[in-house]
Every structure is written in structure tokens, then in C-alpha cells.
Amino acid sequence: MCPVTIQGSEKPIAKVFSDDFAFTIPNYQRPYAWTTEEAGELLEDLLIAINGDNKSVDDLNPYFLGSVVLIKGERPDSQIVDGQQRLVTLSILLSAIRSIVGEKEAKGISAMVYEKGNPILGTPDRYRLTIRERDKRFFQEYIQVEAGIEKLKDLNADLNAALPESCQNIRKNALLFLSRLEKLTEKQRVFLSSFIALRCYIVVVSTPDLNSAYRIFSVLNDRGLDLSLTDILKAEIIGKVGKTDEDLYTKRWEDLEDNLGRDSFENLFAHIRMMYAKIKLRTTVLQEFRDYVNPTTAVR
Q: 73-88: per-residue pLDDT in tens?
């Protein structure tokens, strides 16, 4: 069994979005699924945490954002197994704040969004977070690039309607954040960004091994976190097909998911379980899909 390493217990966001990590989301992972409900709740929680406080940021109580599970070795390259929804949403929020604060403050936020390369050290320019190939270009152009959110506001209605659901979620959450942030003073916006960077913490759990990472992934799901049946099955099934076929099966999976919608897509697996099991559900759809359908052979 490969070791599981818990890196430094809790880390503030400034250390998470730093040179210590270069986050990527594997193509077989779930799409970005947080709606304005989840994103709005996160922002309101953060505003409540700092509301009416005249203390310095360092004196505020810390805010815990949960854990992320990574496949990571000695290098900064880090594949996100669990936690992408929070990390993507935080990137959107930081970029939204950056778009409406002063130049000096915006530069500080950009350092958490984008890492400038160092020719002496041989490090390239790169984004702190690279999302799935299907959504990467949209995320970079309209969220991560400076002034990208200004372009997002003026996005053509026809183009917006043609966007996949994940990109629509990104756009709606960015516009929600802008609408809420515009009601704050300049001082409050800067204070919020400092609070996120210095007093919001995430526990980073990493392992160099895919199998042990997904054991952690499954345990977190079984304890009721935000992963769905289809997310787990996608990781199990496409994670086993090998690099050669990974992109092909990822595209097929995501095309079906986009066409049906996430709720109907999840219901499909319940029907498939019934076709194979031919009995009423006795445990969970996830467990009985594993027992009766067998994801190892389901992709063949």
C-alpha cells in the first residue's frame, strides 16, 4: 500500500495558491457543478465571518474550507482528486475581487491566480489551477486572465446559450460575485481578499498513488461530502481504461452527461443497476452498481 501524506495540516489559501502547488483537474473528473446557490452561500459565509470587525485580519477567527485530496509527489504538480469545486470557486471569487480593486491590490491577487516564470530557475509561466480540457480555455480567457471578467459580462447571448453547463456555472457564479462585491466598499473588498488569503484554511491530503488517492476519495464520498454516484463511478471506470483511451471515454461520458443533465444522468445508472441486479435496492446504488454491473468490465 502506498503511503498517504497529509501535507502540513491546515494551509491558508495564500499557501495553497502558491509555488508549492500546480493544480490540474484530470479530464475524467466531474464537470464544475457548483451553482449560484453554493457559490453565494460561500461568499455570504465569508462576509459574515468578517462583518463589522475592525480588527486586523490576523486577529480574526480562521475559516475552515474543508479538505482537498491530491495525487502529488515531490514536485508542485498536483492532480485534484477531491476539492475542485471549492478551488475553482475560490479562483472565480478572487478574480472577481481583482477586477474591481485598485491596481496594487489586483497585482497581489494575480499572484494567487497566476505564477510568473523564472528564467534563472527554469520555471515557466503557468496558472495556479488548470481545469479540465473541455472547459480550460473558457476558464482562462474569462476568469484567470486579467480583465477577463469584463469580457464575460459582455458575452454574446447566443454564445452563452451554447456553453456547456459547467461553463455556464462558471459565468453565473462570476456575475453573482461581481453583483455582491459591487455593494461593498473598496476597503471591504480588499479586507475580504486578505481574509481569504490569510485566514481561510484548507487541509491538503496528498498521496503519490492513484489507487490510494481514490480510496480516500471514496471514504470522503461515503461520509456525505459533495461527490455524487456518477462522480465516483466516473473516477473508477475511466481511471482504469488507461491513458490511451482516457480522452475518448471522457468525451463520451461528458457528452452524455451534457445531453441528459446531471440529475437524469445519475438516474440512468440506477436503471442500469436494476437491469443487472433484477432486485429492489438493498444497500446503495453505488455499492450495488459495483457489485452487479462491475465497472471494471462496464467500459469494454
A: 778 888 888 889 999 9
